[in-house]
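#help-structures
NK: newbie question, is this the right format to request a structure? protein is HTH cro/C1-type domain-containing protein
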Amino acid sequence: MDLGLAIKSIRKQKGLNQNQFAQLCDITQAYLSQIENNNKEPNLSTLKTISNELEMPLPILFFLSIDSNDISPEKVDAFNIIAPSVKSLINQFFATQ
């Protein structure tokens, strides 16, 4: 699971730099950087704030952070087939630009 990468990717899609987004979330830019680089795990309250500011439901944010390492070996092939399409549809649905 790469939650930091999912957050960073959506933030960038929205055209926000780290400073702007950190201010929206009422956290420091340094803390946001640590979250995006998976060096810190934010608490649930911070995750809810981040998902709200990204205009992305938290369960969808979690889904976007799943990678093949999170899937049982017997289901990896199916995941690798459907995940790109599903993630693309989700990104299109929630895109604001």
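mod (FA): yep, format's fine, and the tokens are attached above. The chain has one domain: 3-94.
NK: thank you!
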